[in-house]
Automatic annotation (TrEMBL):
<feature type="domain" description="O-methyltransferase C-terminal">
    <location>
        <begin position="139"/>
        <end position="319"/>
    </location>
</feature>
<dbReference type="Pfam" id="PF08100">
    <property type="entry name" value="Dimerisation"/>
</dbReference>
<dbReference type="InterPro" id="IPR012967">
    <property type="entry name" value="COMT_dimerisation"/>
</dbReference>
<keyword id="KW-0949">S-adenosyl-L-methionine</keyword>
<keyword id="KW-0808">Transferase</keyword>
<dbReference type="InterPro" id="IPR036388">
    <property type="entry name" value="WH-like_DNA-bd_sf"/>
</dbReference>
<dbReference type="Pfam" id="PF00891">
    <property type="entry name" value="Methyltransf_2"/>
</dbReference>
<protein>
    <submittedName>
        <fullName>Methyltransferase</fullName>
    </submittedName>
</protein>
<dbReference type="InterPro" id="IPR029063">
    <property type="entry name" value="SAM-dependent_MTases_sf"/>
</dbReference>
<feature type="domain" description="O-methyltransferase dimerisation">
    <location>
        <begin position="13"/>
        <end position="93"/>
    </location>
</feature>
<dbReference type="GO" id="GO:0046983">
    <property type="term" value="F:protein dimerization activity"/>
</dbReference>
<keyword id="KW-0489">Methyltransferase</keyword>
<dbReference type="GO" id="GO:0008171">
    <property type="term" value="F:O-methyltransferase activity"/>
</dbReference>
<dbReference type="InterPro" id="IPR001077">
    <property type="entry name" value="COMT_C"/>
</dbReference>
<dbReference type="InterPro" id="IPR036390">
    <property type="entry name" value="WH_DNA-bd_sf"/>
</dbReference>
<dbReference type="InterPro" id="IPR016461">
    <property type="entry name" value="COMT-like"/>
</dbReference>
<dbReference type="GO" id="GO:0032259">
    <property type="term" value="P:methylation"/>
</dbReference>
Length: 343
C-alpha cells in the first residue's frame, strides 16, 4: 500500500504515468529491448547511433525514447551505450523464457489503453451506442477477438503452470474451463495431470484460436463456442475453472456463475476461481486495483473483487473447504474448494 502523498511531484508522477507506459510500448513495437540484448556481451552495450541504425528511427527520436526508459528504470546507461535492466532482459526480450512483450504491446497498448478513454463516460452513465460495453460485444469482432486472445496466450501459460502446482486435480477426469480463452490454462493443467480432459467454453471467435493453440492436445482438449452467461454448460464434470471471468462480467451475474458451476460439478468435485482481487481491506495491491479499474472501463457493471467477496459467493452457492493463494504477485489470486459429497 502506498502511503499518503505529500507533494506535487508525487501527483505528477501519477498524472504523467501514461507517458512512461507509451515509451515502454513503443520500445516493444520497435524491438529496442531485443536489439539491446544482442549486445549484452559487450561491456558498453549498444549506443544511440547503433539503435537508430537497426530500428530505422532517427537518432534524436531514439535518444528521447531511451532517456525515458532509463529514467523509468527499464534500461541502464546513456547514448554512448545502453543495457537492459534485469527485468527487461528477463521479460521484454523476444525469445526470453518468461517474455510477455506481445501481451503488453498488443493487448495492453492496442486494446486496453484506448478503452481507458471511455472510463469517464462509464462512470457518468453517458456511454453511446458506439462504445464497447461488454466482452460479448467486443469479442463479436473477429479481429479484436484474435488480437486479444493471441496476446493473452503468453500471459496465461505461466500462471497456468503455477495453478497446476497449487490445485490437486489428480482425481479429476473432466474439467470445464469457462471463459478459457486460447487454452493457456487448459494446456498447463493437461500437462500436469495426464488423465485430465478439458472443455473450453468461450466466445465463438475466441475458441477458433483455442483450437489452433491446443492442436497438440486435440485428443484431450475440445471447445464449445458460446457466452458463459447464457450458454448451457456441459456436464457433469469433476472440476470447473473460471479464470479472469468474474471481474469482467456484471456484478449481478457472479452469483449465477457460481450456481451454474455447482450444478454441473459432480459431488466431491472442485471449483477454481482465478482473478484480479484486492485485499479485503481494499488498501492494495495497486496493480490489482488498476486492473479492476480497466475492467470497469468497458464493463460498466463490473465490481471490484476481494477474496472475502469471492469466498462468500462460493459458500452461498454451496461450496466448502475453500482455500486462497496469490497466483500472480500483486495482481491475482486463486480460490478453490469443492462441492460436498452426497449423503
Amino acid at each position: 500500500m502506498a502511503g499518503p502523498l505529500t507533494n506535487a511531484e508525487q501527483i505528477s508522477e501519477i498524472a504523467f504515468g501514461f507517458m512512461a507506459s507509451k515509451a515502454l510500448f513503443v520500445a516493444l513495437h520497435l524491438d529496442l529491448f531485443t536489439y539491446i540484448a544482442e549486445f549484452k556481451g559487450q561491456e558498453a552495450g549498444i549506443d544511440a547511433e547503433g539503435l537508430s541504425t537497426v530500428s530505422g528511427i532517427s537518432i534524436d527520436r531514439v535518444t528521447t525514447i531511451m532517456t525515458t526508459l532509463v529514467t523509468s528504470g527499464l534500461v541502464e546507461g546513456d547514448p554512448h551505450g545502453y543495457r537492459n535492466s534485469p527485468a527487461a532482459e528477463s521479460f521484454l526480450v523476444k525469445g526470453a523464457r518468461y517474455e510477455f512483450g506481445d501481451y503488453l504491446r498488443y493487448q495492453i497498448d492496442r486494446q486496453m489503453f484506448p478503452f481507458m478513454n471511455q472510463l469517464e463516460a462509464v462512470v457518468t452513465d453517458s456511454l453511446t451506442d458506439d462504445h464497447t460495453d461488454s466482452y460479448a460485444k467486443w469479442m463479436a469482432d473477429s479481429g479484436e477477438a484474435r488480437l486479444y486472445t493471441e496476446s493473452q496466450h503468453s500471459g496465461s501459460l505461466g500462471p497456468g503452470r503455477t495453478l497446476a502446482r497449487l490445485v490437486d486435480l489428480s482425481g479429476a477426469r473432466r474439467l470445464l474451463d469457462v471463459a478459457g480463452g486460447s487454452g493457456g490454462f487448459a494446456i498447463r493443467l493437461c500437462e500436469a495431470w495426464p488423465e485430465l480432459q478439458v472443455t473450453i467454453l468461450d466466445f465463438p471467435n475466441v475458441v477458433q484460436l483455442a483450437v489452433e493453440k491446443t492442436a497438440h492436445l486435440s485428443d484431450r482438449i475440445d471447445v464449445l463456442g458460446g457466452d458463459a452467461l447464457v450458454t448451457e454448460w456441459p456436464g457433469p464434470v469433476d472440476a470447473v475453472l473460471m479464470s479472469y471471468l468474474w471481474s469482467g462480467v456484471p456484478g449481478k451475474a457472479i452469483a449465477e456463475l457460481a450456481e451454474k458451476a455447482f450444478d454441473v460439478i459432480e459431488p466431491g468435485g472442485q471449483i477454481i476461481v482465478h482473478d484480479f482481487m484486492v485485499d479485503d481491506d481494499r488498501q492494495g495491491p495497486r496493480l490489482a486495483a488498476l486492473w479492476q479499474l480497466q475492467h470497469l472501463a468497458f464493463t460498466p457493471d463490473a465490481v471490484s473483487l476481494t477474496p472475502e467477496t469471492v469466498m462468500n459467493c462460493l459458500t452461498s452457492a454451496g461450496f466448502i473447504d475453500l482455500h486462497e493463494e496469490v497466483l500472480i504477485a500483486g495482481m491475482t489470486r486463486a480460490i478453490w474448494g469443492r462441492k460436498p459429497e452426497t449423503d
